[in-house]
């Protein structure tokens, strides 16, 4: 999946994507949709997990904006750029649903110009484990659409025509929620020894690729299989106490890479991990930290 990530900065329609007009960006999005549809294979499941892992290390709060209206896109991107948000534009609802399946976004902004499709996308996003806690902003055509939007899972709503003042106020309120969601899913790249053991084999040493509050990815772990319950021993950089964590293997590949979800973490280890990740997140997201203090 080719997720074109563009910072929402600059002035005029050019801030949609590095010198491209909004029309060009929408046309590029449609071309990507066609290409993606042709390239899907039976190997997509493992690849999507790796793509999601890679996307999670991207700095900045990521927003998926679903709209084909140039004026709406321009207004939203101007305000989101001021909040150091990174916008991924999509004009097709089916393609947007596919993006949500394969990449992690902290926020979803949906234009209700196509009301039925917009409601369906909101409902689907709330059914996805990776996006059930994401911030959802619905851009409505009228006040009459508010009840259905909230029932479908909208966190915030705005009614067109968009007021830059009201939009900016809404983004300032919702932004800390987006950063919290980023922190929860943030996978920090780190290479440290991790000692792994299972009930059927002795302890061996693997190497971490990244770690988050809810899981870890490893290399040099050929002995593992999907569904294995493992005991992990590791020491985070700049800490002294070794952490012991129980986890379950969610995916693995023939090259010895594996992804695991934590299933049992003591309170002290959880506190240590959350604190360590928060410090790393501030290093990775200096613009976001500054935006929170504005």
List the defining traits of the structure above.
294 residues, 26% strand, 2 domains, six-stranded mixed sheet, alpha/beta, elongated, Thrombin, subunit H, Rossmann fold, six-stranded antiparallel beta barrel, 41% helix
Category by helix and strand content: alpha/beta
Strand content: 25-35%
Cross-sheet strand order for the largest sheet = 1-3-2-4-5-6
| Count of spatially separate domains | 2
What name goes with the CATH superfamily of the largest domain? Response regulator
Principal-axis shape:
elongated
Cα separation of the termini: 35 Å
How many beta-strand elements? 13
Q: Which fold does the CATH topology of the largest domain refer to?
A: Rossmann fold
Encode the helix/strand succession as letters.
EHHEHEHEHEHEHEEEEEEEHH
Total of DSSP H or I helical runs spanning 4+ residues:
9
Residue share in helix: 40-55%
List the helices and strands and how they pair.
Layout (H helix, E strand, L loop, with lengths): L5 E2 L14 H18 L4 H13 L4 E6 L3 H13 L2 E6 L2 H10 L4 E5 L3 H13 L7 E6 L5 H7 L3 E4 L4 H22 L2 E2 L3 E6 L2 E11 L3 E5 L9 E6 L8 E10 L5 E8 L1 H18 L1 H7 L2
Helix pairs in contact: 3-7, 4-5
Short overview:
The protein has 294 residues and is an alpha/beta fold. 41% of the residues lie in helices and 26% in strands.
What does this structure look like?
The chain has 294 residues and is α/β, with parallel strands linked by helices. The chain has two domains: 6-185, Response regulator (Rossmann fold), CATH 3.40.50.2300; 188-284, Thrombin, subunit H (Beta Barrel), CATH 2.40.10. Helix content is 41%, strand content 26%. The chain has nine helices and 13 strands. It has helices at residues 22-39, 44-56, 70-82, 93-102, 115-127, 146-152, 164-185, 267-284, 286-292; strands at 6-7, 61-66, 85-90, 107-111, 135-140, 156-159, 188-189, 193-198, 201-211, 215-219, 229-234, 243-252, 258-265. Strands 1-3-2-4-5-6 form a six-stranded mixed sheet, with helices on both faces. It has a six-stranded antiparallel barrel with strand order 8-9-10-13-12-11. α3 links the parallel β2 and β3 (85-90). α3 (70-82) packs across α7 and α4 (93-102) runs parallel beside α5 (115-127).
